[in-house]
Every structure is written in structure tokens, then in C-alpha cells.
User: Which sequence fits this backbone?
């Protein structure tokens, strides 16, 4: 076939207009209905799957990225339609979710990455679990409780931290509220209305209990029983209540996970394989992927985090809750080893 030839004189008058027009605009995104569905997790170690193992390459310390995202994380176990995407990162604070994040473990704003993903996929559900590393500082509280147990001069952590919890939980709630606002903004910028997707704000599963096995300190749980009970029935529920308030103010849905591993906390069973929370864990694998001076600080990173089995149960509960359409619910572990959703006001921790 002879190629079509256009006389140069015919094109000449059009050239100035073509040059002034500049580059062609990008092709519009595919209509939402034509895009593949996605469920996205944002937040810190609890959402990333720290403690669940088999971390994704690139998040095991390589290049300073210690996000510890696990393929066993609950976002991958919900059974909800579509692709599951985990943007959470171990150690993240609420500011790391929001816009303008300085870059946690080399990674930028989770909200910004959510927005980019939302343009390529039809995001149906955003799971947000963050706040533990803000003013409430659950990790710091755990260290204080361990120190109090090992040092007879130290007062119980429930005595030193108890009076501070209300103010710290309130300050944490303000930071989480700002992060949630940025999540909403990211979705709006990607062309979503609020009714196009669900946001589920989740609290945290209490990792320890006063019902520990004998000689728990020597077996990986150096906590006093009274302090462990305080953490389970006071500290973690206080943070949950603050996060519930954030969800209610925003119009997001709230899922309480305080009791999600109840009866299977660290050092609650023998053998330990049936527990759903890691005991004090030292992982020498950190030296394989990370630089030695950084790896030392991450040796015990997995400690007192949910296991892969816990994430499987929590994931099923999250899926049930999302499908239920309820505004509030709780994931509660049963004696049969299943985590069930209870909708309505969050259930109280068992005395």
C-alpha cells in the first residue's frame, strides 16, 4: 500500500498553532467502574505485619527500609474483592501517613501514595491503623513496664504512666485526625466522593495479659502481672476510645481490636506455638539485610506483635466487618480459636 503523502504547503499554516498548543494532555484515567478494585492498608507495624514474618524484599532493612511488610498481614486476609495493597510501615507515626511526611524508613507520605494508587485502581476500602507511635507511645510504655519489673527500685509502670494516659491519648487522637483528613484529601484529589469508598480506623490488640504462664520473665515476657493487666484493661482500651472518637468525628467506621488476641497473648499458653502475639523476640536475620549499626537497633523489632495466625484471624474479622456495613464493631477471639466480629459499641475487655 502506498503511504499517504500530505503536501508540505498544506501543513505550513498549521505549524504555529501546533507549536503553541504544547504537548498533548495525558490520557484521562479509565472510568472507575473499569478499574480493578483494591483494598489498601495504611499505618504502622500492626498493619504492616511486623511479627508475621516473610517480609517483602526491600522492607527487611535494605537501604534503611525497615517497614517489615508481610504477605501474611491482615489486609491480605480479608477475603474482600480485588487486589490487596499494603502501604503501612513499621514505626510509622500519624504524620508519616499524612501529606508532607519527611520520609519514614526512606518511604514518603502514605496518603500521597494512596492517591496515586487510587487513580490506577478503584479503591473500595482504606484500612488505617496508626497512633501507637505518637504521644501514647505503646512501645515506650512496654519498655517502662519491663524496666519496672526487672528493677526493684522502679515503681510499677501503671503508677508512673497511668496518670498520663488520658492526655497522651487525646494528643494522639489529634494527630490521627490530621492524618485521616489527609487520607480523605488524597481520595478527593483522585476524584472520589466519600460514598465511593469506606475508611476503617482500627485500634490495637493488647499483646500481654496478667494470666501468664509460670516463670514468664524467663520465657520471654518480663512483665509484672499487675502491670500487664493494666495494659490489657486500661492502656489499650484508652487508646481505642480515643481512636473511636476520631472515627466518629470524621464519619469513618471504627473497628476495635483490643480483644482480637485475647486468651492467646504472649506467654499466655504452653506450648507457645498456639499464641497469637510474639514474645520477646531476637531476630539475627536483621544482619543479613541491614547495615550492622542499624541492625542492632532492630534486633527485637518483632517483639509483642501479632503473629501470622493472628493476622489471618483479624483479616477474616475485618472482612466480615466491612461487609456488614456497621459503623462500629469489635474483633473478639473465641475459645475455639476464631476471631469474630461483634457490631455495635466496642466490647469490654474481660475482667
Assistant:
Amino acid at each position: 500500500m502506498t503511504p499517504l503523502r500530505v503536501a508540505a504547503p498544506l501543513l505550513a499554516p498549521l505549524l504555529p498553532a501546533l507549536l503553541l498548543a504544547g504537548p498533548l494532555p495525558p490520557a484521562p484515567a479509565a472510568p472507575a467502574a473499569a478499574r480493578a478494585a483494591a483494598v489498601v492498608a495504611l499505618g504502622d507495624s500492626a498493619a504492616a505485619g511486623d511479627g508475621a514474618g516473610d517480609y517483602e524484599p526491600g522492607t527487611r532493612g535494605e537501604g534503611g527500609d525497615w517497614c517489615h511488610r508481610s504477605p501474611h498481614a491482615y489486609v491480605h486476609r480479608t477475603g474482600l474483592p480485588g487486589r490487596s495493597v499494603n502501604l503501612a510501615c513499621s514505626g510509622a507515626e500519624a504524620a508519616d501517613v499524612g501529606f508532607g511526611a519527611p520520609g519514614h524508613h526512606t518511604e514518603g507520605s502514605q496518603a500521597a501514595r494512596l492517591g496515586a494508587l487510587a487513580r490506577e485502581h478503584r479503591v473500595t476500602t482504606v484500612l488505617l491503623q496508626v497512633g501507637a507511635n505518637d504521644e501514647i507511645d505503646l512501645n515506650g510504655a512496654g519498655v517502662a513496664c519491663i524496666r519496672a519489673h526487672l528493677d526493684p527500685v522502679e515503681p510499677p509502670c501503671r503508677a508512673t504512666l497511668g496518670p498520663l494516659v488520658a492526655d497522651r491519648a487525646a494528643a494522639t487522637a489529634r494527630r490521627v485526625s490530621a492524618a485521616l483528613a489527609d487520607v480523605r484529601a488524597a481520595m478527593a484529589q483522585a476524584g472520589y466522593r466519600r460514598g465511593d469508598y469506606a475508611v476503617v480506623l482500627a485500634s490495637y490488640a493488647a499483646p500481654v495479659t496478667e494470666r501468664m504462664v509460670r516463670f514468664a520473665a524467663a520465657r520471654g515476657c518480663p512483665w509484672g502481672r499487675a502491670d500487664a493487666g493494666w495494659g490489657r484493661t486500661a492502656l489499650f482500651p484508652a487508646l481505642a476510645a480515643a481512636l473511636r472518637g476520631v472515627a466518629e468525628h470524621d464519619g469513618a467506621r471504627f473497628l476495635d481490636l483490643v480483644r482480637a488476641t485475647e486468651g492467646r497473648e504472649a506467654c499466655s499458653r504452653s506450648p507457645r506455638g498456639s499464641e497469637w502475639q510474639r514474645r520477646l523476640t531476637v531476630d539475627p536475620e536483621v544482619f543479613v539485610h541491614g547495615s550492622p549499626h542499624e541492625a542492632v537497633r532492630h534486633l527485637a523489632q518483632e517483639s509483642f506483635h501479632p503473629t501470622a495466625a493472628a493476622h489471618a484471624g483479624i483479616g477474616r474479622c475485618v472482612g466480615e466487618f466491612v461487609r456488614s456495613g456497621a459503623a462500629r464493631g469489635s474483633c473478639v477471639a473465641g475459645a475455639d480459636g476464631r476471631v469474630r466480629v461483634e457490631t455495635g459499641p466496642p466490647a469490654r475487655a474481660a475482667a
Notes: The two ends are 85 Å apart (CA to CA).
